Amino acid sequence: MQIIDGKKIAEEIKGEIREAVDKMCARNLKPPHLAAVLVGHDGGSETYVAQKVKSCEQVGFRSSLIRYEEDVTEAALLRCIARLNIDTDIDGFIVQLPLPGHINERAIIEAIAPAKDVDGFHPENAGRMAIGLPCHVSATPAGIMELFRRCRIDTQGKHCVVLGRSNIVGKPISILMSQKSQPGDATVTLCHSRTRNLADITRQADIIIAAMGQPDFLTADMVKDGVVVIDVGTTRIPSTDTRSGWKLKGDVKFDEVAPKCSYITPVPGGVGPMTIVSLLRNTLQAAEQRNRP
After folding, report:
1. Of the candidates 191, 211, 193, 214, the residue with the CA atom closest to the CA atom of residue 202
2. Active-site position among 119, 206, 231, 251
3. 119 among known catalytic residues
């Protein structure tokens, strides 16, 4: 059993991004500039955005943080997005999710210019990804594919079971894994809350990507020996063992499942760091596109 060290791999990729930025600056070009829009004070969102800002500093990006209170109107948020879309100083930006209930997330996502949608959520990027055209690929699925690539995990012809059908992880990773590529070329089963006899399906899987947001959902009796398990879950649960009073819990019951795996990602330190570097790579891509004559 090998634990996939997403943090270590992410640091390697950050080094590669830093080199690209240094070369850009050596040509007297502006470094990439990533902006983040944060609404309210959700603990998870605050932590995630702070990690993004820190990562930007590490690779030589410029970064901006735009804050709004929880009661911001949808119209005000749309005006902000319209300004960022035409701001030539900003290469890419994200609107941190989730948003308050009175704001239509789909309307916000669709308002972002696809070229600056470095989260890869806009329908244009999602559609181009689905048919294999150049685009900003959703950051978490892109990070998972990079883990397969860097760890040289063979996916060709394997049975990959994806748990969860969200537009952010489940659907896009199921498409990427089924495409004619390496990694890819897998036979994919997409499962969700209405799937019957789920354990019968997961026990057939060579690869399981768990993205349901249900802590400890995948247990040892649901997997076969030698399976590759990618745990996307990051649920905050109360904890008396940490200063923050909470800890992150994955969708996989790690202590039970890990001994049966050939590869497995931990939580934290697995997929999470890869999501952030994928966001950085998308921003670098956007900046390189800006610099093309």
Report:
1. 191
2. 119
3. yes
